[in-house]
Amino acid sequence: MRRILDLVFRRLLWLAQNPLGCCAVCAGFLALVWRLAHVDSLVQVGPTEGFEVLKGSLCSHVAHLYSEVWNDQPPLHTWLLATLFNLFGPSMKTARALACGFGLLMCVSAFGVARRTGGAFAGWIACLTLLGSPEALRLCFAAMLEVSAMGVSLASVWAAFVWENRGGLRWLLLSGCLMGMALQIKFTAAIFVSALLADIVLFAFCGASTFAAVRWARAARAMAAWSLALLAAMGCICAAFQGWSLGALWFSHAAAAAELQREGLYTFSMSNLLDCVAWTNVGALFLLLPAALKAWRQFLFYHVLITRCFWFT
User: Fold this and answer.
1) CA atoms of 306 and 241, how far apart (whole Å)
2) How far apart are CA 108 and CA 299, in angstroms?
3) pTM for the whole thing?
């Protein structure tokens, strides 16, 4: 009996430190929420659900995106919805099941990313914080673009961290491809690009070689490989959809932003930080933490990401 309990304990400990255990817990929790909240029968979970589902439904009936169906977003999410509608029929249940899958990917990827810096305990805190956030949990069931793009972006970051820990060019290329796919879901994923690229370049530069030329060459190769994989993924998706261009996306979003700015609704000042003093203080403490721990290298990705988010806002 004691041997059996010891074996069970070891298995549970292994699962607690493994992404598979996190995946099982998150999947069970999301399934429970789906069941208790009757997510498949709710009228509306997110504000733009109807528009996204309508685009997918029209494209599943052989309507051509951009030429026959107006869209101011990248095409990948709409194509995935249209494909699932062709397989299982157009319904909100199918659309929200896709959203739930991306939500699961986001939570598990957050576990993997945080585990790289602070171990499994930090990974569980990151994952449970996401699941415990009402807004994040709601968006995990909304047939919208935000969680989908964030989930694939975090998977890209996780793949890059696996490359840093284990080596293997395939992980670096996979990271670039995933980031290209995230950008083809929603361009908000671009907030991760600069932080991840800085982390990749610095890791490649801080190698075992003492020659600066060798270090710079490794950093340049890593940056080129990741960037080419990203551009290849984006190019393949762009080539598959006639009428999709960055110009159309930029025009529609820049015009909307200019209109909001004229109305005084699209401005940011330091006084806005007073509305979230607690989170601002937490962010400031987090920025000072690596200096106290003398571990700035492990926190570089998060520093650049936070700085980028403030600038993006």
Assistant:
1) 34
2) 20
3) 0.84
Is the CB of residue 167 less than 8 Å from the CB of residue 206? Answer: no
Which stretches of 167-297 are DSSP H helices? 169-183, 193-205, 212-240, 246-262, 277-293
Task: For residue 99, give both structure tokens.
Answer: 């959203």
* 49-58, 119-128, 158-167, 266-275, range with the lowest pLDDT: 266-275
Q: Which two tokens stand for residue 268?
A: 């940011």
Return d(Cα 109, Cα 250) in angstroms, integer: 29
The CA distances from residue 60 to 72, 79, 81, 102, 159, in Å, are 18, 8, 8, 20, 32
CA distances in angstroms from 148 to 153, 185, 187, listed in the order given: 9, 7, 11
Average pLDDT in the chain? 80
d(CA 54, CA 49): 8
* Cα→Cα distances 206→88, 102, 137, 203, 209, Å: 50, 34, 38, 5, 8
Residue 69 — left, alpha, or beta (φ > 0 → left; ψ -120 to 50 → alpha)?
beta
With both helix axes pointing from N to C terminus, report the angle between 2-16 and 19-37 in degrees, rounded to the nearest 10.
80
Query: Distance of CA 258 to CAs 20, 209, 265, Å?
Result: 45, 50, 10
The tens digit of pLDDT for each residue in 176-219 reads 999 999 999 998 888 889 889 888 888 888 766 667 777 888 88
- Please state, in angstroms and as integers, the Cα–Cα distance from residue 176 to each residue in 65, 77, 78, 140, following that order: 25, 18, 21, 24
Could you identify the residue written with the tokens 């255990």? Answer: 21
